[in-house]
Every structure is written in structure tokens, then in C-alpha cells.
Amino acid sequence: NAGVTQTPKFQVLKTGQSMTLQCAQDMNHEYMSWYRQDPGMGLRLIHYSVGAGITDQGEVPNGYNVSRSTTEDFPLRLLSAAPSQTSVYFCASIDRDRGWDTEAFFGQGTRLTVV
Amino acid sequence: GDSVTQMEGPVTLSEEAFLTINCTYTATGYPSLFWYVQYPGEGLQLLLKATKADDKGSNKGFEATYRKETTSFHLEKGSVQVSDSAVYFCALTTGNTGKLIFGQGTTLQVKP
User: Fold this and answer.
1) Selected residue of B45, B99, B106 to mutate for chain A interface (largest A Cβ count, 10 A)
2) Which of A37, A75, A115, B59 is the most buried (most CB within 10 A)?
3) pLDDT score of B83 more than 80
4) What is the mean pLDDT of residues A62-91?
């Protein structure tokens, strides 16, 4: 199994540009989420989805959009990048059929720099 | 709101030294507690977990006990190896949400 796959691994954007971070999982997990990792702050939840067609906001949703048209894919969109969005982004999925306290599977991350 | 606090890093140890990374939490409900590890250049992976008070999670020589009375979940290992060098995150989840709340992470460097 590939698990959770994120693309790209690295990206540099100019302020105001838009882009989409891709996330795909092949484990048929209903629950998927996006986190950002900043120094000294751990990981913070941006958006999450409990199934295809259902999304909701996490702790730090401003400046980001998501959609979930299939079980496998959960892209994260930056509509107008800002330097404050420089971070490492992680996608994660959970097999909620095994319970909400089960293991979360993470992608390898996307390191985004906004200049 | 719910939160997790970890000891400040980085932590630098010699090989075979004893490791403790402190973690305390605040939660309104009855959380499940986790330790995730992030090796250089990789995503996070679950190291161990405990879902109720007095449970002990263990894996790869690491242990942590869910202490409700002190709201703590400290990570320990009796003898660290160079390969244990990584960033360690304490986390919790409550309710049927799937949302993980992370501590700030502790960097461990083990020297030969």
C-alpha cells in the first residue's frame, strides 16, 4: 500500500499566487484532514472531512479551501498565498471504522515557502 | 479548550542514556493519548497510545502511562539509540471527531 501520498514535496510561491496541495490515500479511509506544522507550535488542524462531500473547518482555516469529491482525494487550496502560510503541511487519514482513537496515517508533508 | 504541553527541547543524550519527555494535557472529556514520532524528512507515525486512565502504551522500547490524577503521559525509554533521533509529539483526541491536538514537539538528538 502507498498509504497517504502528498504532492508536491516542496513549493515556493510568490505572495498572491494560488496553488493546490494534493493528498491521496489508498486505504479507503473516510476521515481525512490537513494540518500545518510551525516551529514551536506543533501541528494545527486546518480542515477535515468525515467522508466524500462533507468538509469542515479546523483550528486555523482562514486562507484555505478544501473539497472532497472522492474518498481517495482531499486537496487543499491556497487562493492567494501570504507569507504567513509558509509552513510544512501534512495530510492525514483515519480508518474511523476502527474507532476515533485509532492511528492516524500521515503523508510525508509539503514544505511551502511564500515569498 | 483542550491542549497539550510538552517539555521544551532540544534534548541531547548519549547512546544508552535514559530518556524522559514530559507531556501534560488539559481536556474537558476523557481523552485518548498518543505519542507520534517524526523522523527526518518523513511524516508522523504513531509510536504508542493509551485510551483510558492507568493504561500503559508501549512500542520499540518506549513506554508511557496515562495518569489521570496528574493529567500526564510522559514518554520514557531505558536506553536510547542513535536511530531514536527524531521529533516526538504528544497528542490527544476527545469525542468522536478524529481531531488530534498536538503538543509543540520535542526534538531528541542521540549522540554515539
Assistant:
1) B99
2) A37
3) yes
4) 97
